């Protein structure tokens, strides 16, 4: 039977590629780590690491074994976290990613109402785009994300929980000629200077596809990750911003500006996603139910 502590020592060496740094990471003496790995090699009957003046190199057998070792360590950590989560006296924690266009009204709801009902809970927020959060969920840096849904193949690794549908809008100065239209033909955007959402966002992906369908070459000045920055440039320079809007909501920071959807609607599904097969803390499921019960329902509404 494999010894868990020896696997932890080996994993530290794998991360650091150096015995001294691994010993400092674990607060364990270097001879203890060396002895543990030597014992592990004897038990397995293969050479796992090769030490040299330039550091540590893992053999082919060592690289293959680490795939299993890291899965074992991850499963043990997940089991420990799950049991702590189920202990009613324990502080509950959740690492939550959220799209910048969903912070209002979700964040006020979470911190003013939801956490009041969960006084022992701690939620650590990470604001970002879809692709960023997909990667963080996949790498287990986030427990849960609330963002636009990715397409295949990324979606195949995730459990998706639908909340609503959003529609992409142009953000305009109220005196801009396009603000007179109820819906804007995409062909007219070829004449405008655009401020596009983050290059890792679902909106950027969908708008690129829409421009290609309509044979429009967009003049994108830059991609923004702060809505207030985009809105201020729309106000001062009469540029055209691009944003997705939640049903029944005015985009935060765009007060006083005109939001207009497109003649060919550009829509996206949004909701929660988590890594398939990975334990989600009970706090996460409680939050999902809370948002489902309190978020405005329905499809895109005209602004």
From TrEMBL:
Species for this entry: Candidatus Oscillibacter excrementigallinarum
Keyword Membrane: no
Gene Ontology CC, one term: cytosol
GO molecular function: DNA binding; DNA-binding transcription factor activity
InterPro entries: HTH-type_LysR_regulators, LysR_HTH_N, LysR_subst-bd, WH-like_DNA-bd_sf, WH_DNA-bd_sf
Top-rank taxon: Bacteria
Family membership: Belongs to the LysR transcriptional regulatory family.
Name recorded for this polypeptide: LysR family transcriptional regulator
Classification via Pfam families: HTH_1 (PF00126), LysR_substrate (PF03466)
Matching PROSITE patterns: HTH_LYSR
SUPFAM superfamilies, A to Z: Periplasmic binding protein-like II, Winged helix' DNA-binding domain
Domain HTH lysR-type: 2-59
Keyword entries, A-Z: DNA-binding, Transcription, Transcription regulation
UniProt keyword Transport, yes or no: no
